Amino acid sequence: MSERGSIFAGEDPFALARQWLAEAETSEPNDANAIALATVDSDGLPDVRMVLLKEIEPAAFVFYTNYGSAKAHELDGAGKAAFVLHWKSLRRQIRVRGAVSREDGPLADEYYASRSLKSRLGAWASRQSQPLESRAALMAEVAKVTARLGPNPPRPPFWGGYRIIPSQIEFWADGAFRLHDRFVWRREGTDKDWKIERLNP
Ligand SMILES: Cc1cc2nc3c(=O)[nH]c(=O)nc-3n(C[C@H](O)[C@H](O)[C@H](O)COP(=O)(O)O)c2cc1C
Predict the structure, then answer these.
(1) pLDDT digits (tens, 9 = 90+) for 150-197
(2) Quick check: is 21 in a domain?
């Protein structure tokens, strides 16, 4: 692959994504790991919201959420998702599309345990995406779960991770006069090699 030098170099798109994210962490004011996660509902209507990317594994991207949320229904229903990472400070984006599966084993337990106690209890108290009568009702629920579960709550069964296993990853960097650089990596299965192409801006 000639021409794919400097910030686009390398043979592993996950390592490249990790590299770009590490760079963004030094230049973004906050949440360099925030991704816009796109899903589709049972009518084919797209939906999108921010979540925090928590892990870039050797072959997947992982984030955490509530399994009763709207996004969880859409992810479980379609089994597919896309997301974009965009860093204004670097003028770069990474776009990912792929298959989705739940991460609700030891890795989810470990991540849940690493969160602050208030966040762990908050996960128990929130029925994410369902109607809420008032802020006071939520705080009452927090007080209730705090009394019930104490200082060492287990991971709620309705809260955990999703793993996105990409079939496509695109790296984009701003160029002068809108002549941006784009490289898309595609593969037909996790046991297949990546095919890399430069795209028109
Ligand atoms: C910067 C940012 C990070 C967020 N991170 C998460 C996250 O990691 N997990 C999550 O469930 N919601 C996160 N949220 C809230 C979601 O955007 C969204 O409001 C919520 O998950 C409900 O989405 P849904 O109704 O489509 O399921 C974040 C919001 C912002 C603005």
Answers:
(1) 999 999 999 999 999 999 999 999 988 888 999 999 999 989 999 999
(2) yes
The pLDDT tens digits for 34-43 are 999 999 999 9
What is the domain-level CATH number for residue 187?
Answer: 2.30.110.10
Output the CA 51–ligand 1 centroid distance in Å: 5
Domain, as residue range, for 83: 2-106+159-199
Catalytic site includes residue 178: yes
Distance 198 CA to ligand 1 centre (A): 32
What total of structural domains would you count in the chain? 1
What separation in Å is there between the alpha carbon of 127 and the centre of ligand 1? Answer: 13
Which atom in ligand 1 lies closest to the alpha carbon of residue 69? 27
Return the half-sphere exposure (C-beta side, CA atoms, 13 A cut-off) of residue 128: 17
Nearest protein CA to atom 5 of ligand 1, as residue: 51
**178, 182, 187, 198: the active-site residue:** 178
CA dihedral sign, ordered 111, 114, 117, 118 = negative
The single-letter code of the amino acid at 195 is K
DSSP H helices, the chain, are 13-27, 70-78, 106-114, 117-125, 135-149
